[in-house]
Amino acid sequence: MQVRRMILLATLVVLAAACGSGAEGRSGAASTTAPAVTTGPAATGPTTTTARTFEFGTVEDVHDGDRTYRYQAALLVIPALDASGQRASNDFDRFFCGGSLVDARHVLTAAHCVDQEQFGGVLPASYLRVAVGRTVLRSGAGALRAVRTISVHPRYRRGNDLGYDVAVLTLTAPVTGIEPVALVGPDDDLTFAGQRVTLTGWGDAESRKPGQVERSRLRNRLKAAHTSIVSTVTCPWKVLENPVGRDPSVELVLCLRTGERVGFCRGDSGGPVVAWVGDRPVQVGVINAARGCSDPSLPGVVANLASPPIRSFVDKVLR
User: If I label 176, which of 34, 92, 291, 299 is the partner at 20 to 30 A Cα–Cα?
Assistant: First the structure.
């Protein structure tokens, strides 16, 4: 089924740009002469912060009984049309982006998911629903909530958004019975090069080069991909609008290894990237963009939640 779906009042499917587990991102955001990011050793074996066991460089299905990723959110557009032009009858056809439950009333996502040119800015909150605690999009499982307000980082700029591509949705009612994901703290050492991370989403799970992105497709079942952070020194997606220069302590983005053809794609935008402290997931990033789906010559780029300019915005909304 095509990822691009017709949406009332325009094709809101432009939202489903970047992605998460084995998926891909918006086109045109990276240099076509980007160097490969497969140099250097892959993370092998647990790090000091990773006790959870998984095979590095793999993508796996998240089964219905797995409660590990229940914080994963699915953003749904209510006035969506399916591929035949009819009003969408299921949440697979309404889905366009991922997110994460960060407390009972708030979901973290990417700014480009909710900021749309055809609306002249942020789309109406009334158009959205958020499903949390669901593995299969069509299942109707988990908690479903309406959105009260949408807060976009004030420094986000459409078309030049890699630096501040984060937004927070405030729900109309709290989500109960589902544990939110913890956010990386200012003193947590979880965003270093080599740190192993897990991405989750419903995006395409096949490796595709930039020109093949249009053939990417959503998956009905949630997937988890296991990769690692690479140094931004070797990452061609370096954000130029860094408020304090090249100080690595406040890097606005994290770059993810794609050497094993594992990364994110269309439909994964806005989803969480977590590191592991024992068996506890701690979110370190928000999926932004990748020019190719798991193309080993191009890294994935995620917003760095440990960056003070990004984290301070999130904390302000959550208060």
Answer: 92
